[in-house]
Amino acid sequence: MATKRGARGARGIPGPAGPSGAKGDAGATGARGATGTAGPRGHHGLTGATGPSEGGIAGKSRIRLLTSIDKHIDNIYRELDTQITRTAKLQAQLDDLRAKIRDVIESQ
Prior knowledge:
Elements: H1 60-107
């Protein structure tokens, strides 16, 4: 048996990196730096037109607007009532189905 080794070969491709070590404690926060001076202010724009003095819509148009909003609210209530009724029916059907499934499971 030969005890002498030959010349060392070229180095191979390195393997993957190992797992990361534990994260160390956070260091202390440094002191806050000095605050600079405020920058220059921008130019003021033109002044717009003055709005109505009574606060918006007045007279018959206000009544028409409120009537329209009232109709929309009634429609929303009607739709909500329909959806709640449908949900209640679905819940009753699911309760029936659940009871039937439990009966089948218990009979086995």
